[in-house]
Specification:
Strand order of the largest sheet: 1-2-3-6-7-8-9-10
GO molecular function, one term: metal ion binding
Number of domains: 2
Number of strands: 22
Strand content: 15-25%
Largest sheet: 8 strands, parallel, barrel
Enzyme class: hydrolase
Shape: globular
Catalytic activity: Endohydrolysis of (1->4)-alpha-D-glucosidic linkages in polysaccharides containing three or more (1->4)-alpha-linked D-glucose units
Protein name: Alpha-amylase
Radius of gyration: 23 Å
Structural class: alpha/beta
GO biological process, one term: carbohydrate metabolic process
Distance between the termini: 68 Å
CATH superfamily of the largest domain: Glycosidases
CATH architecture of the largest domain: Alpha-Beta Barrel
Amino acid sequence: MFLSKVSLCLTLIFVLCSRNIEAQFNPNYASGRTTMVHLFEWKWDDIAVECENFLGPKGFGGVQVSPVNENVVAASRPWWERYQPISYLLTTRSGNEQQFADMVRRCNNVGVRIFVDVVFNHMTGDNVNARGTGGSTADPSNKSFPAVPYSNLDFHPTCSINNYNDKYEVRNCELVGLKDLDQSKSWVQDRVVDFLNHLISLGVAGFRVDAAKHMWPEDLEKIYNRVNNLSTTHGFDTGARPFIFQEVIDLGGEAVSKNEYTNLGVVTEFAHSNSIGKVFRGKDQLRWLINWGPQWGFLNSDRALIFVDNHDNQRGHGAGGADILNYKTSKQYKMASAFMLAHPFGITRVMSSFAFDNTDQGPPTTDGQNIASPIFNDDNSCSGGWVCEHRWRQIYNMVGFRNIVAGTAIQNWWDNGSNQIAFCRGSKGFVAFNGDSYDLNTSLQTCLPAGTYCDIISGVKSDSGCTGKRVEVGSDGRATISITQAEEDGTLAIHFESKL
């Protein structure tokens, strides 16, 4: 009897731990929402307003925000200074702790979750008398960061990463000279856990773990398991775990594999970004998208955080090189984004950029130091140096499309044997793409009830009107779909809520 009770207790512990870990794969979105946006380098006050005025009403599920902790003040204020920590104080060019907490509260109130980009693989590199955005100072050359505090006892010995086929070098040496923390040490684990738990107490829903590839999975597991459940006072369910998505760049051929991290949390699937760029640049035919997903070498859908571009590879950094699409190739970029959002694979993230002419350039400023707020135009677009892809009609309407068709499968796939494709999402939505150098004009099965529908790519539904194309669906569910080669957009999309 005693043994059976012990066995039962062990089983219960195992089940509870399993549920605990599994919960880290749930983005904790409000009901009916499926996609996050990365508002790269936005200020906290501006994000709060954007949640209330745009993201919430348009059905976005969450925001990935730039690193929130104090970073080094670098000459000319490049974007990458945010990835060189000085301390875990919540003071950056985006705002202070009070502004951050207010943003999280206001976004949660309108059903938009906040995911923090957390940097704890390393501290800053060699900057003599380094000064941080919160006024803290450090001596990186001696691995001294008193505002944490960290000393040279908390870091790996100095060495450079020269060989990515040596996993020990990748995880124990310094990434581009940044002082590499030793996450196996209890003091370091304590400081990181305190930092993450503080963010949870302020209402965040999860974390993007920067440079996870450069940390040992067993060390990350210890840290993740000590992080608190999400805050019920901020509206999360009892026992809800923070969503964890880890940056692991893996296009194959290296010692560290993305598969080593999938039991800990979701992984950023850079192979998706690389492959979708090749397809919509014309290096692969669209017809091959029929088996999009793990057959392309991607992780399983529930483990893959997917995107067309991110803040690194849109600048040619990280992985993918010239194949990566960004806002500068706008037609192909919108088509790739629409396909990502129309297809059921993966956990989707939309990029929202500022314009850049060189790869180091930081966000727009008012005076060379302080970040400028985006300027919003009458057509919802941004100016003032901000691109705001998430405000492009072709993208935010497809975020809504993904919400509407959630839970349905692809059916009635059609292609012309080349670069024209179309498919239904159950009986809720239909999408078509023309990547050829000639027009698409043919009768296709939409899987939708008879009626007139507004194409959400070329326009928006307004009461009983439509500012874009109208699609007439017959009693058999078929419609004549037309996308000319010369059109601004190479995509057409309709769903049951776009019926006029």
